[in-house]
Prior knowledge:
- With 328 residues, the protein is α/β, with parallel strands linked by helices.
- The protein contains 7 helices and 11 strands.
- The chain has 2 domains: 1-72 and 160-304 and 313-322, Immunoglobulin-like; 79-117 and 131-157, no CATH class.
Amino acid sequence: MNFGEMLRNRSSKLKALIFGLPTILAPGMAFAQEAAAEATDAAAEAAPDAAGGYTPLGPEMIVGQPEPGGIWFQDQHSAIGKEALWMHDAVLTPIITVISIFVLFLLIWVVVRYNRKANPNPSKTSHNSLLEVVWTLVPVLILVGIAVPSISLLAHQYESPPEDALTVKATGYQWYWGYSYPDNGDFEIISNMMPEEEAISKGLPPQLAADNRMVVPAGVPIRLQTTGADVIHAFAVPSLWFKIDAVPGRLNERVMQIDKPGIYYGQCSELCGARHGYMPIAVEAVPMEQFNAWVLSQGGTLGGEEEEAAAAPEEEAEAAGEEPAPAV
Length: 328
Ligand SMILES: [Cu+2]
């Protein structure tokens, strides 16, 4: 366990204590939520194959979401996220902590040892070559030490998606998201915030749950493109270390690769007008077969379906996403 992890674990114990209290005081509330969650699970189990083999994930599959009082990063579920969190926890936080404590110690030492009462005749020293070399060299070495993992992290974050990556385009509208799938027939899903009562009754987090999620396959690279239809929005999902502006007239893109199936919540992160706070992002990562079933249930096509009508279904499934992205 590294330093940042230790701090995070400590804070979560404290949070459990503070935020657990209302739950103890209001057990009825917690019960109602659990019952609702169970009811949703039961409903989901009762109607599998309703949409051609695809069943929306239930609340038990929520992986990435903020927690009350959370002041640390959310757990990361992508390779980039893990690298970046390591950079923060194992490199930056310890260095910041040690330097802060060292400077505080120096300040206290000067105040106590060299105040007018304790040291009536101050030294007239104006130079000390050794000290000056040390206090120049040590910070330089620290910065060089930080630069190595920092620059490689930066380079990893800007790596281009592989050519066969599945393309998903997120468009920010005032005030909802549209997700289109150019490799799968270019259909678009419109995603609005789910009404609060509906979210609670389904056991989903209110103001984060969306009526239609951005469904993507887990474990494969996704070329996520963003653009804005009216003003600048930003597509941000903290548990995937993902944040990119959605700018009108411009197409931004980054690789998103999600380790495991689950639901990952985010929000628009660029002030975009009156309902900026009400355009949540709900990413649903599912195994590839589930994704293909979902695409078909939305009236989309699997990659290369028209050209390779004779191909076996499994091959088609594998080919999903291999169709080159249309020029934009
Ligand atoms: Cu927005």
